[in-house]
Design a protein that fits this description.
This protein has 115 residues and is mainly β. It has one helix and eight strands; from the N terminus they run ββββββββα. It has one domain. Strand 6 and strand 7 form a beta hairpin.
């Protein structure tokens, strides 16, 4: 799924593979998307850390939602909607062109070290 994608489908099957989520064996969603709307009470952390540490916060991802659910995305947007249990959840795709100044790429780090 990219910014240019348009999707309106019922998800019957979703599984993770190397950081991506494969939906209905048809299309791929990056696994790093994040929930930007309120988290419903039914969306719980099924794999919490063995030892909770200060500051740990469950950040729901699309793979944390068990099918079936509906997924909607309009063209030219980084947001997509998931509808499940009468709740509407908004997720945000990662912008591939965004460069986080607090998290440099390997190339930038290498350049800063050796120049």
């Amino acid at each position: 799924m990219t910014k240019e994608s348009e999707i309106n489908t019922i998800v019957a099957k979703a599984w993770a593979n190397h950081g991506a989520v494969i939906i209905n064996d048809s299309f791929v969603i990056p696994g790093g998307n994040k929930l930007v709307s309120a988290k419903p009470s039914w969306l719980v952390d099924e794999n919490p850390p063995i030892v909770e540490f200060p500051g740990y916060k469950f950040t729901p991802r699309i793979i944390d939602i068990d099918p079936p659910f509906q997924i909607l995305k309009e063209k030219e947007t980084f947001e997509f909607i998931v509808i499940k249990n009468n709740d509407t959840l908004t997720f945000e795709l990662t912008d591939p062109d965004y460069e986080d100044p607090s998290d440099p790429t390997f190339r930038e780090t290498f350049k800063n070290i050796f120049n």
